[in-house]
C-alpha cells in the first residue's frame, strides 16, 4: 500500500482512505438512480423515437464509473472518483437527441473523449492549466464549493424554485415543512458539530445517522417520493430496505454507438459544433473540478498543479471514451469526491475503494440507493463550506482581479455549471486586463481559451447561422 499510494508521504492511513472511499461512494451513488432517469425512458427518446432502457443505463453507469475510478486511483493516485457527468448527460437528453439518434450521440461522446485524451497526452491541457492565473484557480475552487453546496441545498428541498416570485425560496412556501428536509438539517448540523470536535469519520457518521433517521421516518409516515405527487416526499430516492438485494447487470447498451453517424445525418459543420460543445463542457468541467479538489485535499502547489497531473488528465479523458462506448454518457471527475476528501482521503486508494463499490453495486444496485439524496446533500453542503477557505487567497483590493474572480464564483451555482463559471471568469479577466493596460500580463493561451468560450456561449446563434 505504501509503495503504490505513498500513504505516509501524504499523512494518511489505510483506514482513513477506506473510510473516505466509502463516503465518496455513498455521496455519489445517487448517479446510479439519476443517470437512468435522465437518459432512459420515453421522455428522452431520440430523433427516431427510440429510448434507452433505464435498467441497461444503470448497469452501464455502474460499470463505467467502477472501472474508470479504479484505474484513476492506481494511475493518478488522487482521491477523485469518476462517474457520468450531470451536465453532459442532461445536454444529451434535452438537446442532442432531438437532432441525432442515441448511438450517434454516444458516438460523438466517444470522439469528444478521444480529443480530450490527445490534449492531455500531448501536454496541451496542462499548458492551458498553467496559463490560468492563481486568483482564478482559487476562484474556481471557491465557486465549486458554492456550486456543490447549492446543489445540496436544492436536492434536499432546503431551497426550492418559485412560481412568479423570486427565483428560489426557503423550503416550501418560504418555510421548512417537510420531514426529509428536517432530516437534512439534522444530518448537516451533526456533521458540522462532529467536524468541529474533530471526531474521525464525522461525515460518514452523519450519513449513517441521517439514513437511519430517514428509514425510521419513512416507516412511520410513508412519505413516498415527491415525483409521485407527494409534496412532502423524498427527492428521487425513497429510503427503504430493498426486497431484492441481488440483481444481475444488463450490459445490452455496451458497444451500441455510431461515431460517424451524426456527421452523415447533420453534415460536418453542424456535427462539429455539437462535438466542440461536448469538448468544452468536458474539458473545463474536469479542470475546474480537479483544481478545486486538489486544493481541498492539500495536494495542490502554489501554481495550482498537483501530482501526476498529466496522467489525471489522460484518464479523465478516457472517461468520455468509456462513457460513450457504454452509453452511460461522458464520465468525468465528480466534485462530490470532496466528501471523501473531507473524511481525510488523500491518495488513490480511496478512489480504488470507491470504484470497487461501484463494481459491487452492479450486483447490489438496490442497496446502493438506500441512502436518500437529502442525507447525501448534507455532506455536499459541509464540504462546500470547507472549500470556501480558498477565498482568502484572492486579492480583493485589486478590482481587476476581484471582478473576474467574483463572476467565476457566482456564475457556477447560479447557472448550475462549472464550465460556465470558468468561461465567464476567463472572458472577464481578458477584457478587464485588455482595457486597463494590463494585456501583457495575460498569457496568450488564456486569450485563445477566452475566444473559444465566446464561441461556446454564442453557439446557438452560430449554429442557426451556419444552418
Itemize the secondary structure elements and their pairings:
Blueprint: H1 2-5, H2 14-28, H3 31-39, H4 54-76, E1 82-84, H5 86-94, H6 102-121, H7 124-131, H8 134-155, E2 159-161, E3 168-170, H9 179-196, H10 202-221, H11 261-266, H12 268-296, H13 309-325, E4 331-333, H14 338-342, H15 348-361, H16 365-368, H17 373-387, H18 399-415, H19 418-435, H20 444-457, H21 459-466
Antiparallel strand pairs: 1-4, 2-3
Low-confidence stretches: none
Count of helical stretches: 21
CA radius of gyration is 21 Å
Largest sheet: 2 strands, antiparallel
Cα separation of the termini: 56 Å
Order of helices and strands: HHHHEHHHHEEHHHHHEHHHHHHHH
Task: Put the structure in a nutshell.
Helices cover 63% and strands 3% of the residues. With 467 residues, it is mainly alpha-helical. It has one domain.
Note down, in words, how this protein is organized.
The chain has 467 residues and is an all-alpha fold. The protein is 63% helix and 3% strand. The chain has helices at residues 2-5, 14-28, 31-39, 54-76, 86-94, 102-121, 124-131, 134-155, 179-196, 202-221, 261-266, 268-296, 309-325, 338-342, 348-361, 365-368, 373-387, 399-415, 418-435, 444-457, 459-466; strands at 82-84, 159-161, 168-170, 331-333. The strands form two sheets. The chain has a two-stranded antiparallel sheet. A two-stranded antiparallel sheet has the order 2-3. Strand 2 (159-161) and strand 3 form a beta hairpin. The mean pLDDT is 89.
Amino acid at each position: 500500500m505504501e509503495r503504490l499510494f505513498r500513504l505516509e508521504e501524504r499523512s494518511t492511513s489505510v483506514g482513513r482512505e477506506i473510510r473516505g472511499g466509502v463516503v465518496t461512494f455513498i455521496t455519489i451513488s445517487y448517479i446510479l438512480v439519476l443517470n437512468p432517469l435522465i437518459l432512459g425512458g420515453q421522455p428522452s427518446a431520440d430523433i427516431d423515437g427510440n429510448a434507452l432502457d433505464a435498467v441497461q443505463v444503470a448497469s452501464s453507469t455502474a460499470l463505467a464509473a467502477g472501472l474508470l475510478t479504479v484505474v484513476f486511483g492506481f494511475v493518478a493516485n488522487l482521491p477523485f472518483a469518476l462517474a457520468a457527468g450531470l451536465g453532459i448527460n442532461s445536454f444529451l437528453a434535452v438537446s442532442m437527441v432531438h437532432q441525432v439518434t442515441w448511438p450517434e450521440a454516444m458516438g460523438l461522446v466517444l470522439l469528444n473523449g478521444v480529443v480530450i485524451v490527445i490534449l492531455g497526452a500531448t501536454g496541451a491541457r496542462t499548458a492551458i492549466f498553467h496559463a490560468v492565473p492563481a486568483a482564478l484557480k482559487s476562484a474556481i475552487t471557491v465557486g465549486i464549493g458554492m456550486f456543490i453546496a447549492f446543489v445540496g441545498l436544492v436536492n434536499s428541498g432546503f431551497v426550492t424554485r418559485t412560481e412568479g416570485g423570486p427565483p428560489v425560496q426557503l423550503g416550501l412556501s418560504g418555510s421548512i415543512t417537510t420531514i426529509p428536509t428536517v432530516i437534512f438539517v439534522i444530518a448537516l448540523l451533526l456533521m458540522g458539530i462532529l467536524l468541529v470536535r474533530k471526531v474521525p469519520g464525522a461525515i460518514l457518521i452523519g450519513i449513517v445517522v441521517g439514513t437511519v433517521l430517514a428509514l425510521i421516518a419513512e416507516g412511520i409516515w410513508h412519505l413516498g417520493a415527491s415525483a409521485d405527487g407527494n409534496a412532502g416526499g423524498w427527492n428521487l430516492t425513497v429510503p427503504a430496505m430493498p426486497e431484492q438485494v441481488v440483481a444481475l447487470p444488463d450490459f445490452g447498451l455496451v458497444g451500441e454507438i455510431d461515431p460517424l453517424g451524426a456527421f452523415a445525418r447533420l453534415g460536418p459543420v453542424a456535427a462539429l459544433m455539437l462535438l466542440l460543445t461536448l469538448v468544452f463542457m468536458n474539458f473545463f468541467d474536469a479542470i475546474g473540478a480537479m483544481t478545486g479538489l486538489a486544493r481541498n485535499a492539500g495536494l495542490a502547489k502554489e501554481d495550482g498543479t498537483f501530482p501526476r497531473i498529466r496522467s489525471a488528465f489522460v484518464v479523465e479523458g478516457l472517461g468520455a471514451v468509456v462513457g460513450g462506448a457504454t452509453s452511460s454518457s461522458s464520465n468525468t471527475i465528480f466534485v462530490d469526491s470532496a466528501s471523501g476528501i473531507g473524511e481525510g482521503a488523500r491518495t488513490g486508494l480511496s478512489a480504488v475503494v470507491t470504484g470497487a463499490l461501484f463494481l459491487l453495486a452492479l450486483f447490489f444496485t438496490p442497496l446502493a440507493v438506500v441512502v436518500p439524496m437529502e442525507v447525501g446533500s448534507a455532506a455536499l453542503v459541509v464540504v462546500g463550506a470547507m472549500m470556501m477557505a480558498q477565498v482568502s487567497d484572492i486579492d480583493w483590493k485589486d478590482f481587476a482581479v476581484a471582478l473576474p474572480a467574483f463572476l467565476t464564483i457566482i456564475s457556477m451555482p447560479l447557472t448550475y455549471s462549472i464550465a460556465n463559471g470558468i468561461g465567464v471568469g476567463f472572458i472577464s479577466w481578458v477584457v478587464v486586463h485588455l482595457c486597463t493596460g494590463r494585456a501583457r500580463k495575460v498569457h496568450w493561451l488564456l486569450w485563445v481559451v477566452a475566444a473559444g468560450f465566446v464561441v461556446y456561449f454564442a453557439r446557438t446563434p452560430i449554429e442557426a447561422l451556419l444552418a
